[in-house]
Structures are given as C-alpha cells and as structure tokens.
Amino acid sequence: MFEGALCGVELGRLQGAFDRAVDDCKSDWLDGIARGTTSAAHFDIPNPLVRDDAFIDLIDCPAWYPYLMDFADQELILIGSQVRTLPAQPISYVGWHADVPQTNPLHMKVQVYVEDVPADGGVFAFVPGSHKPDAGPCPKPRLYEAMPGHKTFPGKAGDAILFNSYGWHTSMVNKTTSPRKSIILIYEQWTEGRVASDRYAATADRMTTPERRRLFGLDPMRAEAS
Amino acid sequence: MIDAHVHVFAKVSSQFPRDVDEITPAETEATAEQLLQQMEDSGVEKANLVQIGGSAFEQHAYLLHCLKTYPDRFRGIGLVADPAHPEEQMDRLVGEGGVIGFRLFSIGGERDPLAPIDVRTFDTYKIWKHAAENDYVIWLYPPAAENHCVPFLLDAFPELTVVFNHMAFCPGEGSFSYDDKGRPHLELPIPPVTRYNTMGLHQYPNVCVKLSGQYAFSKEPFPYADLAGWHGALLRSFGADRLMWATDSPWILEEPGYGNLTRVIDTQLPDLSEKDKALIMGGTAQTRLFDRS
Prior knowledge:
The complex is a heterodimer of chains A (226) and B (293). Chain A is an alpha+beta fold and 226 residues long. Chain A has helices at residues 8-35, 48-51, 53-59, 65-71, 210-215, and strands at residues 43-44, 76-86, 107-113, 124-126, 151-153, 160-164, 169-171, 180-189. Chain B has a single domain (2-290), classed as TIM Barrel, CATH 3.20.20.140. At the A-B interface, helix 1 of A face helix 5 of B.
C-alpha cells in the first residue's frame, strides 16, 4: 500500500477530473440502468483516458510505476483503467475471486482511493499469499468476512494499493451512506499481441515519451529483429 | 414435479371479472382444468398459480375459485391494488385460503443508486413490511431501474422469502414486446447486467430464483442453449434448494409446448445431480411454497 501516493495539487486535480467525469456521464449511466443494459452496482466512466489527462498521468505515477516495471522485468503494458464509483449498498457487487489464472502473464492492479475509504466504505480486501501457484481454488464463503486470512485496506484519499491479480480479492460491502470513489489501473507483463496497437490511439498525441508509447502499446515493446 | 409459476384465467363474466389486454381478450380462457390436463400428461403434480387480470380483490375471483376447488394441487400468488394501504387486501386474500404471497412489478424506490436510500420511503414498503410480519412470500419481477433497491429491502427484512421471477432477469425500459406467437419477449443482455445487484443476495437465506420464462429472454429457439451459462451461474450462487422450475403456462403451450418445458432443465443444467434436479423440479417449491402454513 502506498500511503499518500497522491496529495496536494496532484490529488485535487484528480478529484476534480473524477467529479467532472461523473457529472458528464451520470445521466447516460442512469438511462442504461433503466434500459437494463448497464449495471447499477458500479458506475464506470467510459473511455476515461480520452476524457482527462489527469487519468493518463495516473498510469505511470512515480509512486507505483517503478515497482510495476520491476515486477514486469521492464516490459509493462496497460490493459485498462476503471474510473469507478461504488454506490453504498448492503451487498457487494463481486464475490471473492482471482482475476486471472496462473497461466496468464503476470497481471497487476493498482487501486487508487480518490476520496477517503473507511473500513465500512467498500474497502479493497486481499488474502495475502493467495497469489502463489499452490494456493488452490478460491474459497467462496457466503459472508465476505468469513474468508480465512483476508486483510482489508481502508485508506485516505490519495492512497493506492498495488496487488497481484492472481490473488483472491474483493470489494467489501459499502455500508456507509456515501459512494466510494476509486480508480483501478490494470497492467500486465508484456506479451506479443496482448494489446492492439490502436487500443489507445485516441490518446497518441499525449504519449510524448518512448516509454509511455510502449506502455500504451503504441510502439513495439522490443526492437524489430534485423 | 411442481410447476412454480403458471397463469389461469376464465372468460370475462360477472362471476370472474378481470382486465383484458391483447393476449387475454374477454373470450379467451386458460382454465385450471386445461392446466391440470397438461400437468397430468407430463407428470407434474402441483402448480403455483400467479394472478393475472387485475389487482383488485374481486379480480382474484377465478384464482380463489381454483385454489378452493383444488387445494391439494395449487397454491397462489396475488396482487396488491393499493401499495399505500395493502394490509387488508393481503390478509383477506390469504384468509380465503391458498394464497401464500404477492407479486410485485415495481419497488417505487430511488432510481439513482448514488442517492441516499431509505426503504421507508419506497412506494411498496408497506407491502414488504406486512409480508415480513406475516411470513407472506414476495414474488418479485422488478424493473431494471429499481433492482438496486432490492438489497436494501432484504437488509431491512432479512428473513423474508423472496422469489425472483424468470431467472432474475429484470425488464428494461423499451425491452418488452410480443413475439410472432403473441408471447412476451424481452430484449436484454445475457447474462443480465442486473446480476451485480442480484447474485450477492444469496447471503439472505430465503431469497430464491425461479427458472422460467426462457422463451422470453433467449435469442435462440428451444432448448434455449444461450441461457445455459446463466442457469449454471444461478446454481453455483444460490444452490438447488433455492431454485424452482416453472413453465409460465399458458404462454408456452403452443411453442415449445408444456411437455418440452418439463425437460428444459436437463439441457440448461446437464450435469445436475439427481438430488439437485429433484429440488429444482419440485422439492424447493414444496418446501418454500406448499409447506407454508
């Protein structure tokens, strides 16, 4: 966990971008819920990277980016970004789970708390050690709190949590009266063809360094063999 | 076998008044005797009759008649005319014998999931409260716009028996039409996106899901193979002792036919154990519906 990974002006910029995006997109979200085509359990901003540079700058934030690069042997790609508002509700929208099997290339996420997330506010929870190959199948306890060995991560605005997506994790119930605001960044160790070269083409004009262009899949990760 | 969701109605008469619409004109009927014949031909012993034709007490006349005539074969689900003052009608219908619960098509709750939610302000709150106090069943078919309100009601009344209709699909605005056979059809994603507010309800011990209405939600002909994954997900989350098979007769009598629907679970859940199959095909309905006092 990176406490205070974002603070001051940087955090304020992100909070402003988050709230503007929610204001811009909320009516479409509510329309989708009414039509039965969009989930009411969480509100994700469509195409956030196109919407505001604050969301782009989060991807290679110095607080966590070096660790991701190290874990990925310097070959890291961005899979996606979820700018997510989680309503207060008596149940969680997702059970305990791993995102990918061990056969998947190393898969990592960073969850950034945009506002304070108290212990009963839909905190991220993880089972330490469950990312290891011998962990076995993920248990499915009826109550979230019954997961053996789990650890919860309440935090302040600007805190971030990096975790291995092989491990068992969930969002605990948001029992408060306020929605949880967080951003989930999804990364993976590079493999050929995993991200199409045009996936982030709409943001290409803002990818001004070779390293960023590789991270966003705009340039090849490895030099062409001669 | 127990068919957990069917409709019966008589021709409109002074004895059996009811509303009419394009699929239930005044001169049409789907009688209990016709249903019993279909059931007997397919080895189905009992059925749960779900009110159709209006929510006023007097419009329940045919339902009550059937329940009184065949008390060992049927249970019934009624409707509530006035959600603001539901208690008298609910008690009166149950008092007539055979009615065990009430169907809701709406919640009357907050449509913005990010807004503060207080169940006591919901239009149907008194129905839920009275049902919880008297152990009546809530037969639930909520619109997608309000499905997120349901967990709050279960949080308020955690012991209440709630049966989600039609595989827990929730109709979306603009999704409803009639197909070329005059049957209800709903154009919704498979699996339903409302599942994120529904699957977690397995933690409440008396929330059940009815496996029916495949014809209305599938994008394929019988046996509706595109719904098999969703049936499996419901089984894994809720378990067979909270799932109930049903036909939604009479809408299915012409296509795919009552007999075919008695076998639909075999194709939707092909790896089901005999014990779990027995529960889904009648055991759960016996316990949750017929064994109620």
